[in-house]
Amino acid sequence: MESGDLKIAWARQYMPVLSSIRKRFVEEKPFSGMTIGMALHVEAKTAVLVETLAAGGAEVHITGCNPLSTQDDVATALDTREGIHSYARRGASVEEYYAAIDRVLDARPAITIDDGMDLIFRIHTERRDVLDSVIGGCEETTTGIHRLRAMAQEGALRFPVVAVNDTPMKHFFDNVHGTGESSLASIMITTNILIAGKRFVVAGYGYCGRGLAQKARSLGARVIVTEVDPRRALQAHMDGFEVMTMDDATHLGDIFVTTTGNTSILTERHFPKMKDGAILANAGHFNVEIDVDWLAAHADSTVHRDGVDTYVLDGKAVHVLAEGRLVNLATPKGMGHPVEVMDLSFAVQALSAEFIAKHGRELAPGVHDVPSAIDEGVARLKLDALGLSIDRLTPDQETYMSSWTIGT
Q1: Tell me: the pLDDT tens digits for 110-153?
Q2: How and how many cofactors are bound, per the record note (predicted)?
Q3: CB 337 within 8 A of CB 326
Q4: Which residue numbers belong to the known binding site for NAD(+)?
Q5: Model confidence at 3: pLDDT above 90
Q6: Shortest CA distance to 341 belongs to which of 6, 45, 138?
Q7: Looking at residue 295, what is its pLDDT?
Q8: Greatest Cα pair distance in the chain
Q9: Where are the alpha helices (DSSP H) in 192-325?
Q10: Which pLDDT tens digit goes with each residue over 18-59?
Q11: pLDDT, tens digit (0-9, with 9 covering 90-100), for 323-332
Q12: Cα 344 from Cα 366, distance rounded (Å)
């Protein structure tokens, strides 16, 4: 087997939930006659999702959602599968990146699956000729949902999109455990530095930041959290982390990781105040949280290594990982979220795509929640795969929980 096939086979054996869904898809063919267009991180776990959709009867066209997150051998392996067409390439220029998205859209997909909303953005701007073909879409990540809700609020979103990112199964496992473990793993394997004892600054205390802070503390880091939301800041304080502004944290941190999904988190006012050897990484979707352009324009010198760009400012080195892109995927050895975590998220994704295939024409344009039965069903499939049993409510308990007349 080629390396891409080996990677996909490895991932598949640790994705029992998606395997269970695939068996049903093979029998029922919910996507028969449909084309699905995807812009996701093209790596082994994504490949298992793509194979699952193709097994359900779909013709799948896929490209990347980040120029540095594609594993070329996996993309090549996918392109050999019947009914699957892959256009992703690691290191694509901006022009090549959008050309690949256009190739996906040339297939006129009935369903879109996005991680960051670039497909939907392209459809609503440069490729409005595709609008009439689309029944609906699914969005995988927080940044994409923010963009979609802004579109919907302005009345610009022309078809229904399921917010896969917003389910408990995504938040509790993908965001917390997936982002936390994979980001730290990429930082450690890229730099070979010790986490224990370091001042570890986490920008943002959403689900991703929360997981990263907890995992870093478990490795012995002294964690500082910066926030703009007073409730999340208070939560971080109650969880036992130091809370302060980024301006105050700048001269303390040894490692900085941004998880906000917003722009301009580490900027020109922060870099000159950092320690010599400070390490900067981003765990948000787009490369806008760290102002790498300012560093490149003002550094006395720059040294490029695999996955690390070192900028020297007034004799002090600042190390940026993965060009400020997603650190868990864009470093040379970044593997993304752990397999078992993505089994859950991609199971929700597959079932949400099936929901769109069956009910998309009935839904109004806008952002829609994942039906709770899908989210709960994925959890039950995972429990079954683990051999775990849980209690069920008795009829009396169900009555009690749904009644307003039963009091003290």
Answers
A1: 999 999 999 999 999 999 999 999 999 999 988 899 999 999 99
A2: Binds 1 NAD(+) per subunit.
A3: no
A4: 141-143, 175, 204-211, 227, 262, 283-285, 328, 337
A5: yes
A6: 45
A7: 97
A8: 73
A9: 207-218, 230-238, 246-249, 292-298
A10: 999 999 999 999 999 999 999 999 999 999 999 999 999 999
A11: 999 999 899 8
A12: 24
Q: Tell me, what amino acid is at 247? A: D
Annotated binding site for substrate: 115, 140, 170, 174
Domains recognised in the chain with CATH numbers: 3-170+337-386 (3.40.50.1480), 177-330 (3.40.50.720)
Distance CA 352, CA 166 (A): 12
The runs of H, that is alpha helices, within 240-338 are 246-249, 292-298, 327-330
57: burial class by Cβ within 10 Å (0-12, 13-18, 19+)? middle
Q: What share of the chain is helix, strand, coil (3-state, %, to 5)?
A: 50, 15, 35
Calculate the dihedral angle through the C-alpha atoms of 170, 175, 181, 183, rounding to the nearest 10 degrees.
Answer: 130
Tens of pLDDT, residue by residue over 178-216, are 999 999 999 999 999 999 999 999 999 999 999 999 999
- The structure tokens listed for 265 are 């988190």
Quickly count helices (H) and strands (E) in the chain. Answer: 17, 15
Residue positions in the annotated binding site? Answer: 115, 140-143, 170, 174-175, 204-211, 227, 262, 283-285, 328, 337
**Is the model's pLDDT at 289 over the cut of 80?**
yes
Tell me the whole-structure pTM to 2 decimals.
0.90
Q: Is the pLDDT of residue 224 over 80?
A: yes
* Per-residue model confidence as pLDDT tens digits over 145-182: 999 999 999 999 999 999 999 999 998 999 999 999 99
Rg (Cα) of the chain, in Å, rounded? 22
The three-state secondary structure class of 407 is coil
In this predicted structure, the answer to whether residue 221 has a pLDDT above a threshold of 80 is yes
The residues with which 280 forms a beta bridge, in sequence order, are 256, 320
Question: What DSSP line would sit under 35-85, residue for residue?
Answer: EEEEES--SHHHHHHHHHHHHTT-EEEEE-SSTT---HHHHHHHHTSTTEE
Report the alpha-carbon distance of residue 181 to residue 337 in Å, rounded.
7
More confident residue, 129 or 404: 129
Alpha carbon 384 to its chain's center: 25
Contacts of 248 by beta carbon, 8 Å cutoff, 6+ apart: none
Go through 64-100 and write b for each residue having 16 or more CB atoms within 10 A of its CB, e for each that does not. Answer: bbbbbbbbebbbbbbeebebbbbbbbbebeeeebbeb
Helix, strand, or coil here: 317?
strand
